[in-house]
Amino acid sequence: MAEHPPAPRTAPRLSATFTPDVMAEIRRAAATGIYDIRGAGAKRALPHLDDLLFLGASISRYPLEGYRERCGTEVVLGARFASKPIRLKTPVTIAGMSFGSLSANAKEALGRGATLAGTSTTTGDGGMTPEERRHSRTLVYQYLPSRYGMNPDDLRRADAIEVVVGQGAKPGGGGMLLGQKITERVAGMRCLPPGIDQRSACRHPDWTGPDDLAIKIEELREITDWEKPIYVKVGASRPYYDTALAAKSGADVVVLDGMQGGTAATQDVFIEHVGIPTLAAIRPAVQALQDLGLHRKVQLVVSGGIRSGADVAKVLALGADAVAIGTAALIALGDNDPRWQAEYEALGTTAGAYDDWHEGRDPAGITTQDPVLSARLDPELAGRRLANYLAVMTLEAQTIARACGKSHLHNLEPEDLVALTIEAAAMAQVPLAGTGWIPGKGLL
Amino acid sequence: MPSFDLRTAPLRELNRALHALRPDTNETRWLIGNPDGRHAVAVGLDAAVSVEIDGHVGYYCAGMNKRASVVVNGNAGVGVAENMISGFVHVRGDASQAAGATAHGGMLLIDGNAGARCGISMKGVDILVKGSIGHMSAFMAQAGTLTVLGDAGEALGDSLYEARLYVRGAVASLGADCVEKAMRDEHRAQVFAKLEAAGLAGEVDPGEFRRYGSARSLYHFHVDNAGAY
Ligand SMILES: Cc1cc2nc3c(=O)[nH]c(=O)nc-3n(C[C@H](O)[C@H](O)[C@H](O)COP(=O)(O)O)c2cc1C
């Protein structure tokens, strides 16, 4: 008698809703009762600059010679009201990252790298360190809700002032630096006892709303004799209105940070679910400036997930004047480098995924205050790496601009772009590749 | 004595002139007339001079002050002496909200009342208010003293760090993590010193004040405190 083969069974099937990641988080939450805090930006796939492509020149437009014809990269920020605007050789700037979240060596390396590349770097929550001032030719001083370390001497020492309203990783959120990272020095700069958690407020203590902001900006200008450019940084959520209000309040420069933007430490739920992607934020911000007749008069600096010269070129083509990088700069310094793989594994993670920056145990010595770990980062070498990387980004952006026939990066325009997906076409307001269709705009 | 009429001279010129003062300047007394509620009057000073403003000022008067003594013969708008580092700021009238916000040092003396959020995020300043203060005062106050001869509004000292709050009158309510603490001799001595600095030594009894400070239970995030955040 022939034996029946075993009846076929359903294959084990993992849920697309309850993925292993989701289940692991539920178990973690159930075991601890605390939400997940981490560093870095949104990790899920989002419509991004990769969804855009450039249309190189051909018969209807002609390109510029790669190594012969000039393609300018310099940018001036803050000429609207400041008597001493910022002049940079490349539109790629270094975003504000706090001393406290980063080691003093890392801050120094950012300053060195930016200076070699002819660009600016930015302080962060917690104030300005003498090291970063010394090693940064152009230093933007952040004016944050916490006002940790805020003092008029540093304000006068700064080259520009950035009023931080929000960050892309957490628009509407404040900050939290956990006690582990609060050494005597960090605590001293913030006027708090060492070793305790430091909450940074989400609202400024002495102004709310655009009318107050205008008065606050006037005060900062009066204190610094109208010399320094004043930036206003917002997390991308309502970029049209926020950009318009910042410009109306008298900002020289608007910094717009999309939801992929990194953070030192924030709740994962905040990072992944609040704010809009960088790609979606740029056109409304540019539109706001155009509607006010201020495009190119008030500069727009865009950040959040910028990684390459292609990203830079795309952001500029959409109408921004410059970009800022945080996470990419840390990677250039040595963050998440596979050479520390064994140590990442000991921390229960892997190179490329390490994001517990708030815990201060960074094997690469960057997001830590531990003297032994931070000694691993040589600020000179790391600064050199950052400068190399900035040079590559600039060259890449120039390569694209020349291919589009542009003699300056700022001549890139939306007409040079098409989108790969309908989402990207709608967000960037450029046609879907191979069509004349811009969703929401009808046929061209 | 240099004097400035803000009805005729631009504010920018006044602040510039004050910033240009050298440490050994002979122009140590300045008179400012007709401020008419202007914002950012006498901000960013860094010289041991005294500036007297005759009238009401708008927002951020004496903001980021260092070393200078600034007297307002009138009321002050939002954020008077915000982020002051050192020196002395005296408001003869009332002050609006966020008086002395984030100030690191020096003394802020208010003869009248102060509005909401007086001493918010203060980082070492001494604030003395002869009248009463509004709600949410000393929110997240980190260091320094806030001495109030009158009453305090709701949620005093919410999320307080190490600042010391002394109130003579009634406190409408205390904010999260703010508790009443015992007044010991050292605290009475501290109150006396602040009263003395305000020219009130002998007029007001330090023994009449109660002290409020941080329970320090929110210093390390703990899920059982989630309701307090
Ligand atoms: C470690 C770290 C610390 C940061 N600290 C600050 C800060 O103090 N103030 C601020 O405005 N933004 C801060 N940010 C955000 C950056 O300024 C910037 O908006 C963001 O990193 C840009 O996105 P990207 O990381 O994808 O380049 C921080 C980001 C990182 C990664």
Automatic annotation (TrEMBL), chain A:
<dbReference type="InterPro" id="IPR024188">
    <property type="entry name" value="GltB"/>
</dbReference>
<dbReference type="Pfam" id="PF01645">
    <property type="entry name" value="Glu_synthase"/>
</dbReference>
<dbReference type="GO" id="GO:0015930">
    <property type="term" value="F:glutamate synthase activity"/>
</dbReference>
<keyword id="KW-0560">Oxidoreductase</keyword>
<dbReference type="InterPro" id="IPR013785">
    <property type="entry name" value="Aldolase_TIM"/>
</dbReference>
<dbReference type="InterPro" id="IPR002932">
    <property type="entry name" value="Glu_synthdom"/>
</dbReference>
<feature type="domain" description="Glutamate synthase">
    <location>
        <begin position="83"/>
        <end position="334"/>
    </location>
</feature>
<protein>
    <submittedName>
        <fullName>Glutamate synthase</fullName>
    </submittedName>
</protein>
<dbReference type="InterPro" id="IPR043578">
    <property type="entry name" value="GltB_archl_type"/>
</dbReference>
<dbReference type="GO" id="GO:0006537">
    <property type="term" value="P:glutamate biosynthetic process"/>
</dbReference>
<comment type="similarity">
    <text>Belongs to the glutamate synthase family.</text>
</comment>
<feature type="domain" description="Glutamate synthase">
    <location>
        <begin position="358"/>
        <end position="406"/>
    </location>
</feature>
From TrEMBL, chain B:
<dbReference type="InterPro" id="IPR012061">
    <property type="entry name" value="Glu_synth_lsu_3"/>
</dbReference>
<protein>
    <submittedName>
        <fullName>Protein glxC</fullName>
    </submittedName>
</protein>
<dbReference type="InterPro" id="IPR036485">
    <property type="entry name" value="Glu_synth_asu_C_sf"/>
</dbReference>
